[in-house]
Specification:
With about 325 residues, the chain is an alpha/beta fold. It has two domains: about 180 residues, FAD/NAD(P)-binding domain (3-Layer(bba) Sandwich), CATH 3.50.50; about 120 residues, FAD/NAD(P)-binding domain, CATH 3.50.50. The protein contains six helices and 19 strands. Strands 1, 2, 5, 6, 7, 8 and 19 form a seven-stranded mixed sheet that branches. A five-stranded parallel sheet has the order 10-17-11-12-13, with helices on one face. β7 and β8 form a beta hairpin. The longest helix is centred in the C-terminal third of the chain and has 19 residues. It is elongated. The two termini are about 35 Å apart. The structure holds NADP nicotinamide-adenine-dinucleotide phosphate (NAP).
Length: about 325
């Protein structure tokens, strides 16, 4: 069984930043990539708000740069999905792909969050045949077609705006009359002549015809009337669920399933296990906040491995080293 001082699970901005810091601290971390190497940013196009890139940078390019930076300092990467962890004793045990077991003195969990599904009839059956959760990945296939984007948050606005590059008509379908999205994202979508709106309706099923999407069936929340909105594609952009299923109750989670961290730190309910990025942050969920918490996790893990684990995490950030 391979033994490591530190294993990092996840390669989004949080995991890769933790890898850069941990590798520079000579911890030679093993970084497990998971099923979506690079994380959610690899499914986005231009990132305009990551500091240091005045003209923006493509999401996949940003992640590739972070990975190279971590490798330069000695981080080792392996592909594989974590199927099980044993946090009941140290060293912790991490099972990858159902069989390959690795031991670690400290663990950083940066497994992020995954796109939520509507859970309505037709959605699963037609996924990959017109139903998608990633406009960047699948938008190209809808050139000259009509699409629907479900959701009222920033993701829905972003996906809808992006899809107007390909589709002739994009309809945003939302379950309330008010949008959750930020003003700037709303305005961008509202000012786009290709975008139309169907508000205050609940999606009830995705209708297919000959293996393709034909319509989204919705119920009007005011009148109860059910109708079909004809479309070639349905993009579901209704938020995310943290990837914590593999922890099987071994760590304290909050009521939404996100890992609970202590005070200003990334320390979890298990000593020696740290969490960073979207898996512990239901609030900010930005690449830069994830990267920042990845840095904190590596510093917390380093401090723990040095033996100064009796730190009071609940006190102010003044304890951080310069
Ligand atoms: P979100 O803010 O949680 O919005 C989810 C939307 O989906 C809400 O409008 C919600 O409706 C709707 N919804 C949820 N479950 C649904 C269901 N079962 N059926 C129908 N509709 C459903 O998620 P998000 O848009 O993914 O954004 C998450 C975070 O990332 C936010 O902090 C956001 O600011 C950030 N973000 C930023 C950018 C950017 O700045 N470029 C881009 C994307 C995301 P209700 O409103 O009725 O709850």
């Amino acid at each position: 069984m391979a033994h490591h001082r530190l294993i990092i699970l996840g390669t989004g901005p949080a995991g890769l930043t933790a890898a850069i810091y941990a590798a520079r601290a000579n911890l030679e971390p093993l970084v497990v990539e998971g099923t979506e190497p690079g994380g959610q940013l690899t499914t986005t196009t231009e990132v305009e708000n990551f500091p240091g890139f005045p003209d923006g940078i493509l999401g996949p390019e940003l992640m590739d740069n972070m990975r190279k930076q971590a490798e330069r300092f000695g981080a080792r990467f392996m592909q594989g999905w974590v199927t099980e962890v044993d946090l009941s004793q140290r060293p912790f045990r991490v099972t990858i792909g159902g069989g390959d077991v690795h031991e670690a003195d400290a663990l950083i969990i940066a497994t992020g969050a995954s796109a939520k599904k509507l859970g309505i009839p037709g959605e699963a059956e037609l996924t990959g045949r017109g139903v998608s959760t990633c406009a960047t990945c699948d938008g190209f296939f809808f050139r000259g077609k009509r699409v629907i984007v479900v959701g009222g948050g920033d993701s829905a606005m972003e996906e809808a705006t992006f899809l107007t590059k390909f589709a002739t008509e994009v309809t945003i379908v939302h379950r309330r009359n008010e949008l959750r999205a930020s003003k700037v994202m709303q305005e961008r979508a509202r000012n786009n002549p290709k975008i139309s709106w169907v508000m205050n309706v609940t999606p009830v099923s995705v209708i297919g015809e000959g293996n393709k999407v034909k319509a989204l069936e919705v119920r009007d929340n005011a009148t109860g009337e059910v109708r079909q909105l004809e479309t070639d594609g349905v993009f579901v952009a209704i938020g995310h669920t943290p990837n914590t299923g593999f922890l099987q109750g071994q760590l304290e989670l909050n009521e939404l399933g996100y890992i609970q961290t202590r005070g200003v730190s990334t320390a979890t309910s298990v000593e020696g296990v740290f969490a960073c990025g979207d898996v512990m942050d239901p609030h900010y969920r930005q690449a830069i906040t994830a990267a920042g918490s990845g840095c904190k996790a590596a510093m917390d893990a380093e401090r723990f491995l040095e033996g100064s684990s009796s730190h009071d995490w609940s006190v102010s950030a003044g304890s951080a080293r310069a």
